[in-house]
Specification:
- The structure holds 2 protein chains of 2 kinds.
- By secondary structure, chain A is of the alpha/beta class.
- Chain A has a domain of 350 residues: TIM Barrel (Alpha-Beta Barrel), CATH 3.20.20.
- Chain A has an 8-stranded parallel sheet with strand order 6-15-14-13-12-9-8-7.
- In chain A, α4 crosses α13, α7 crosses α8 and α11 crosses α13.
- Chain B is α+β, with helices and mostly antiparallel strands.
- The two termini of chain B are 43 Å apart.
- Chain B folds into 3 domains: 447 residues, Aminohydrolase, N-terminal nucleophile (Ntn) domain (Glutamine Phosphoribosylpyrophosphate, subunit 1, domain 1); 89 residues; 190 residues, no CATH class.
- Classes of the chains: A alpha/beta, B alpha+beta.
- At the A-B interface, α5, β11, α7 and α8 of A face β1, α20 and α24 of B.
């Protein structure tokens, strides 16, 4: 009998062949950047241009504006409602086509949209939402003229107070096309496949039920385009996801809804969700109104009854149970990598090391900044450790224990843009998981009413058949592809400025970060 | 003990702490993970090597970064002392990591305080690296037989105002304080640890290493050291590269050793509780804290064991209400005083202690109130008795088998296996094996629960002499049985043997089985032989005055003999047969089935419990090569059998003999799995469809998250069966379960294809008759927060009360319900011979199903469902709602 200590030393050739792979043809999605304009003609904009009665409909404004904000259709006497979301705002004053100044009647007035006072929240500020929308529309960063603050939110903590210290001149000159943003997921050398993502992030688990199937499919298609992954969440594996098996993570969560051998066997990564950073100590929950006939069918539960997953796994109360649990999945699928998703309690470092020693390839720590509107506020804001502390704690501890290079550390929880991703990696993560940002790409306005039932005003976090028709898969995928592309460009830009050829060089470089409130070497900026 | 003495003891410890200034810790130094634990006691002293096999089998519950053993009740000659010295002198085992400190240590702590009868260094192998299970050099261990010098003790008593204490207890306190001082100086206060006390007590030894527990036996060369009580621990610490033996289990108190499987959530609170009582941990793990708690309650407060257990695992909820009023009064006082010291979270303790004044020993297992850790108890009765406690049943079986090989009087099958229901009014969640001298001065074992109630044993008393090998066959019997074989009538053969077995001697029984096994030489009889022996193994029937466990062992041996004699897959000459045998050595010969081959028989012995060298992996490979029928035998807890075959496996069958492992049948879709014996934990998780039959009990979290399947269990389930089940599982549990049956059950509407559980609350008596249990369900939580499905409880005595239901109610049982249940009860009858008619007979009188069964189903809860009216199609008259009252 082989000593179990040497179990790790299995060679590639020892792995049996017969584990099944996906049984259906896999969809191909090109990484093509195409405009994906807002779904609504009058999408929310930061600035409003008011037109007074003094307007004589001369058409001057429409003539001068290169963005095409003002629309006077031929044959019409009156202006149509302006397309404000393409207006660059007050920065236009410095140009020679500022309509407000050029209006012969002085009939135009630019003001900040009062909606900005109610849109979003401290973490997702209006600027972050609007800039994410812009990126999703165009596939690249919004031009600076728009004046969006697209790095920092206004939460007063977390990534909003951490800044990347860029050198005045990069130590080495790197061309953008040389920069490597790939992420290796299997570092155990256990004979299981080496999976490499093109970007250092993948999509977080959102169940069918919490979001619509259009949302899930859009995420999946974007994952294919960027050779990364999306995750089923807890509500089972939709048949329609099958063409994306190779880029889907099956989540095994505490309620075990929809988990079956075939859904474990068809994927390349299986994720154990022990806890969510947004609500540690609580299982997943789906309130009654969202348990529509199709959701109930998928989860094989009763229509219209709230579904609560337990916390924690009833079968896992210790590390050796954890190992057994992973061994089980490894047995069912001999080629899958295993991810253990945990929240960030104060002993998250122990949990991470434990997960590694129990056999996880990926340790995914989920901090407290994330969570949709469905996570209870009392939990969302008060329980988990801020992820920026968690990452450092885990990274340092794994390093001290000598296993840092045997495990892929993934961080998540409220990461909103490429800067957050870079900061998380500089703190010590290998990569990240994003969730809410993808919903914002689909037009989420952060009204935080996800739990209220089927009534997501934007048709994203809904299972209502009518509401979800607001989005087509094509549009949804394009929005997320565009966002991913913009992020990747931003990341490359950050790495070029830092003189790094690969994202992996950034890992753990806390020396490149500064905290805006309490380091000695920087003056507070705000 | 009187309050003044307790105060004096506290004062004495206060002075000690003032002097030593032990650090207070905010956090555990070492995060505990899970563990594998096993303990056994035997009426005869048995050699250390018997702890070897169960320890090795628990490797996957540890990671080789901490292991330990404890032993109690030695033979004096093996320790080189007289019986008098062994009985009356304390033994100190001191681990020395840095030999430079030895001289100073001995001078300061040993020779100045004690009269030393014997001092020796434990012998070791020369090169520790030769032992594969070790990760660091084990400490040198020095053993001292000591008695406190009378002057020293008198001074101590005087100085600390302890003159009211009996001499014996004063000495115990003195020795304990010496240990604390020693540990403080050479262990806790230093950056690097140099020496610490491993055990302090009479007739007790603890050894621990950084490595697997069984490596201790090899390293200290104690294979032949005999003791009455052994416990072993495999540790799986969450953290850590380099470990220290000081952190490994067991931890010792005066005369006691404790191992622990689990993790406290309230370590800090327990430490504060102890600090208020002048007790400070020095090794900073929750296991150390556990023994400190036990020692405090026992040695300082002089609580009887029952109250100690109550202080550790308080009785709550309905269980508390069901205690007699006088117990309630005492228990509430205990809880009021000690609740802050009560460990919270998943934990399971095995404690062994010597009671030198009574020349007795105890081995006990205590489980937490929520029963979050697996635990199994067993007793093998007879001329030689063995009491066992383990985290997995296979560790018990491995111990018994190991003992049996040495001493044929010990049967490898225990007479009883059972679980404890933590914090309950029924057994208190703890069982104690007492080893006390009988009238002839021989140690005998009795087993009681927390309340002192004796555990009843099966009635048979005549033992089989396993030393005598019987290979004879009976030609006469052969010709008598032959027509049955021609007719392929296994049931008739079973009936024949069953009818004769009460009168037969063991020899006759054995000859009969030999004869039956022999018939398999004719290939066309093989299936009938398998079926007949399987029926004999599975069914419950009277065997006269013989021990049923001994009969079961004989049958299992016959089955093993039969399976091992089947044609091997790797043999050069292959006779025409449906069966092919494969084992670990021949595993690479696996190929697709050919010609008449239908059934692959896997000798599981030697396969790893999980991973690529496991039998479950071989089975999976064989299935993909085209095999459809499997027999796995000789199992010793190998996991995941039947997992990984994927969807739509209808027509596949797997029969498992021996100690099946965790997660068997999890996720199956279509196939039939039959477990011919007890099953373990996490069986049938997420099962989708198919059939699972268990001829015995099942362990923790049975069918968690199940989606379907037809499942039949002859015996009991442990805690949390069918939690979070959805879809359409149909389950018959013939016994009962510990608690939390069907929590958050969501399996639709029973009248519309939804799932249900039938809980029969019956068992077989020694003569094979079906009898009702005292009550069908004792737990405080039945079907809590369920939103779909139903549970049908056979409860003719109306013993279930609404207080046991949380969020569901009693619904009127109708003929429509009965029509749903009946096909499953009929199948249940076919499988286990539990007749529907018997189930409907109450006190000799046949009743109608609606009188015998009660239906528990969800009720409308406004907070959980908006459209509950639409969903609740069930009859809800006579509804008793358990919420809001």
């Amino acid at each position: 009998m082989v000593n179990s200590l040497v179990r790790e030393k299995i060679n590639n050739s020892d792995l049996p062949e017969n584990t099944r792979k996906t049984q259906v043809e896999q969809a191909r999605v090109a990484r093509e950047i195409k405009p994906a304009p807002p779904r609504y003609r009058n999408e929310l904009a930061k600035y409003i241009i008011n037109r007074s009665n003094a307007c004589i409909h001369c058409g001057k404004c429409a003539e001068v504006c290169p963005q095409g904000v003002h629309i006077l259709k031929p044959g019409y006497k009156l202006f149509a409602a302006p397309r404000l979301n393409v207006c660059i705002g007050p920065s236009c004053q410095n140009t020679d086509h500022y309509c407000v100044d050029l209006c012969p009647q002085k009939a135009l007035r630019m003001v900040e949209n009062p909606m900005m006072k109610v849109l979003g929240d401290y973490r997702w500020t209006p600027d972050l939402i609007l800039s994410t929308w812009k990126m999703s529309e165009t596939g690249s960063a919004p031009p600076v003229e728009f004046g969006y603050e697209r790095e920092f939110g206004n939460s007063g903590g977390g990534f909003d107070r951490i800044k990347i210290k860029f050198p005045e001149k990069p130590p080495i000159e790197v061309k953008p096309e040389e920069v490597d943003t790939t992420l290796e997921l299997n570092r155990r050398n256990d004979g299981r496949p080496q999976i490499k993502l093109d970007v250092p992030w993948y999509g977080g688990g959102m169940s069918f039920g919490s979001v619509s199937n259009v949302t899930q499919l859009s995420k999946a298609r974007a994952a294919v385009a960027f050779n990364t992954f999306t995750c089923t969440g807890e509500g089972g594996y939709m048949e329609r996801l099958r063409p994306y098996d190779d880029h889907t993570i099956t989540q095994v969560a505490t309620g075990l809804f929809g988990v079956r051998e075939e859904t474990i066997q068809r994927v390349r990564i299986v994720e154990f969700k022990y806890a969510q950073g947004a609500k540690p100590g609580l299982g997943g929950h789906l309130l009654a109104d969202k348990v529509t006939p199709s959701v109930a069918r998928m989860r094989e539960t009763v229509l219209g009854i709230s579904l609560f997953s337990p916390f924690p796994f009833h079968s896992v109360y210790s590390i050796e149970d954890h190992q057994k649990h992973m061994d089980w999945i490894k047995h069912i699928n001999r080629h899958a990598l295993i991810s253990a998703k945990v929240s960030t309690p104060t002993d998250v470092d122990m949990v991470a090391v434990g997960s590694h020693s129990a056999g996880a390839h990926i340790v995914h720590i989920d901090g407290g900044y994330g969570g949709t509107g469905a996570a209870p506020d009392i939990a969302k804001k008060n329980i988990a450790m801020p992820v920026e502390y968690g990452i450092v704690k885990v990274h340092d501890f794994l390093t001290r224990e000598g296993v840092r290079d045997k495990v892929t550390l993934i961080a998540s929880g409220g990461l909103r843009n490429a800067y957050d991703i870079a900061k998380a990696i500089a703190l010590g993560a290998d990569g990240v998981v994003v969730g809410t940002a993808e919903l914002v790409a689909l037009g989420c306005i952060r009204c935080a009413r996800c739990e209220s039932g089927r009534g997501c005003p934007r048709g994203i976090a809904t299972t209502d058949t009518k509401l979800q028709e607001q989005i087509t898969v094509e549009w949804g995928s394009q929005r997320i592809i565009n966002l991913y592309n913009a992020w990747r460009n931003d990341l490359v830009d950050i790495l070029v400025k830092l003189g790094m050829r690969s994202i992996s060089e950034l890992r753990g470089r806390t020396d490149l970060l500064m905290h805006m409130d309490y380091t000695n070497d920087v003056e507070p900026t705000k | 003990m009187n309050g003044e003495l307790i105060d004096n003891l506290h004062a004495s410890r206060y002075m000690l702490n003032q002097e030593l200034q032990p650090p207070t810790s905010e956090r555990k130094l070492e995060e505990e993970g899970g563990c594998g634990v096993v303990g056994f006691c035997c009426s005869e002293p048995v050699a250390a090597r018997h702890i070897y096999e169960p320890s090795r089998q628990m490797h996957n519950r540890g990671n080789g970064k901490g292991g330990g053993v404890a032993a109690l009740g030695f033979k004096p000659e093996q320790l080189g002392v007289s019986k008098d010295v062994l009985d009356n002198y304390y033994i100190l085992h001191i681990a020395v990591l840095d030999l430079n400190v030895l001289q100073a240590l001995e001078k300061k702590y040993i020779y100045s305080n004690f009269e030393v009868k014997s001092a020796q260094k434990l012998d070791t192998v020369e090169d520790w690296t030769k032992i594969s299970g070790l990760q660091a050099k084990p400490p040198d261990v020095f053993r001292y037989f000591v008695k406190t010098k009378s002057d020293t003790l008198n001074d101590f008593v005087k100085k600390n105002n302890l003159s009211g204490l009996p001499q014996e207890e004063a000495e115990a306190e003195f020795i304990n304080q010496i240990s604390i001082r020693l540990n403080q100086e050479f262990y806790a206060s230093l950056g690097e640890q140099k020496a610490f006390v491993m055990s302090e007590g009479k007739n007790i030894m603890i050894l621990k290493v950084v490595g697997f527990a069984e490596a201790i036996i090899q390293y200290y060369k104690i294979e032949e050291l005999c003791a009455h009580v052994w416990i072993a621990h495999q540790r799986f610490p969450t953290k850590g590269r380099v470990w220290h033996p000081g952190g490994a289990h067991p931890f010792g108190g005066i005369n006691a050793a404790l191992v622990h499987n689990g993790d406290f959530a309230n370590y800090h609170s327990v430490c504060e509780y102890l600090a208020e009582r002048q007790i400070f941990p020095q090794f900073l793990t929750d296991t150390e804290v556990s023994i400190l708690l036990f020692d405090l309650l026992e040695r300082t407060y002089h609580y009887p064991l029952e109250y100690i257990i109550e202080a550790l695992a308080p009785t709550s909820e309905l269980d508390f209400d069901r205690l007699p009023p006088e117990k309630q009064a005492i228990y509430s006082s205990i809880q009021a005083a000690h609740i802050h010291g009560s460990p919270d979270g998943p934990w399971f303790f095995i404690i062994a202690r010597s009671l030198p004044d009574q020349k007795a020993f105890q081995l006990m297992g205590i489980t937490d109130t929520s029963m979050l850790r697996p635990q199994v108890f067993a007793l093998s009765n007879g001329e030689v008795q063995v009491g066992l406690i383990a985290s997995e049943k296979q560790a018990i079986d491995a111990t018994l088998l190991s003992l049996h090989k040495d001493d044929a009087r010990i049967c490898p099958v225990a007479e009883r296996y059972w679980n404890a229901r933590g914090g309950s009014h029924t057994d208190g969640g703890a069982f104690i094996f007492d080893l006390k001298s009988d009238d002839h001065g021989k140690l005998r074992i009795t087993c009681t629960d927390k309340f002192g109630t004796h555990i009843p044993m099966p009635s048979g008393s005549e033992e089989c002499n396993f030393a005598k090998e019987i290979t004879a066959v009976s030609a006469e019997l052969g010709s008598e049985l032959k027509p049955f074989f021609e007719d392929k009538d296994a049931a008739a053969i079973f009936k024949y043997v069953k009818n004769h077995s009460p009168q037969w001697t063991y020899d006759e029984f054995q000859i009969c089985l030999n004869t039956i096994v022999n018939m398999a030489e004719v290939d066309r009889y093989t299936t009938t032989v398998v079926d007949a022996l399987t029926l004999l193994n599975d069914r419950q029937y009277g065997v006269g005055n013989k021990k049923r466990s001994h009969i079961v062992y004989i049958i299992r041996m016959a089955l093993n003999k039969l399976f091992s004699s089947l044609p091997r897959l790797d043999s050069d000459t292959l006779p025409d047969s449906n069966y092919r045998l494969i084992d670990y050595a021949s595993r690479l010969s696996l190929r697709e089935p050919r010609n008449s081959e239908t059934t692959l028989v896997i000798n599981v012995s030697g396969f790893e419990p999980e991973g690529k060298l496991s039998d479950a992996t071989l089975l999976m490979d064989a299935y993909f090569k085209g095999w459809k029928h499997f027999i796995s035998y000789n199992c010793i807890g190998q996991r995941f059998t039947g997992c990984g075959l994927g969807p739509e496996t209808d027509g596949v069958t797997i029969d498992i003999y021996g100690s099946s492992g965790d997660y068997v049948a999890s996720g199956i879709d279509g196939m039939t799995i039959t477990i011919h014996g007890n099953a373990q934990d996490q069986v049938g998780q997420i099962i989708k469809s198919g059939k699972l039959v268990v001829h015995g009990d099942v362990g923790q979290t049975f069918m968690y998250g199940a989606k379907g399947g037809a499942v039949f269990v002859r015996g009991n389930a442990a805690g949390r069966p069918l939690i979070n089940s959805v879809g359409k599982p149909k389950v018959v549990l013939n016994g009962t379960c510990l608690d939390f049956l069907g929590e958050s059950f969501m399996a639709g509407d029973v009248f519309n294809g939804g799932g249900f559980v039938i809980l029969n609350g019956v068992k077989f008596d020694d003569n094979g008759y079906v009898v009702s249990l005292k009550e069908p369900y004792s737990g405080s939580n039945l079907f809590s927060l369920a939103s779909g499905g139903a549970i049908y409880v056979r409860d003719p005595g109306q013993q279930l009360v609404w207080q046991q239901l949380n969020g569901c109610g009693f619904h009127r049982m109708t003929d429509e319900d009965w029509a749903l249940m009946l096909p499953y009860l009929e199948e249940n009858e076919r499988l286990f011979n539990i007749k529907v008619e018997e189930l409907l007979t109450v006190n000799g009188e046949k009743r109608s199903p609606v009188e015998v069964y009660r239906k528990v189903a969800p009720v409308k809860i406004a907070a959980l469902g908006k459209k509950a009216e639409e969903i609740m199609a069930t009859e809800t008259e006579e509804l008793t709602v358990s919420t809001g009252e």
